[in-house]
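Design a sequence for this backbone.
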């Protein structure tokens, strides 16, 4: 990728740094990612872009997270109540 390019909004951006990173997610474990940091020309704003590291199972893990969302697979089911519990006045 060239050192400077235009984003979708037409603003000039410059690539500052690329690196590989690993994140540990409680449901899927370690996810290996490639990270690229893009800066605005005056370096006042940063955009971090993460994508799955090729040759790993990161893409499959990220797809699973897209499907399960924020639900916890190990959390016990909580009962759902249709109305709040009644409170008795015991001051009388």
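Sequence:
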């Amino acid at each position: 990728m060239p050192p400077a390019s235009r984003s979708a909004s037409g603003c000039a951006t410059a690539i500052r740094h690329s690196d590989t990173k690993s994140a540990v997610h409680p449901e899927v474990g370690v996810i290996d990612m490639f990270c690229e940091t893009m800066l605005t020309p005056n370096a006042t704003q940063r955009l971090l872009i993460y994508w799955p590291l090729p040759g790993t199972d990161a893409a499959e893990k990220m797809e699973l997270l897209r499907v399960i969302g924020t639900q916890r697979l190990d959390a016990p089911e909580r009962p759902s109540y249709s109305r709040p519990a009644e409170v008795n006045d015991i001051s009388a």
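The chain has a mean pLDDT of 76.
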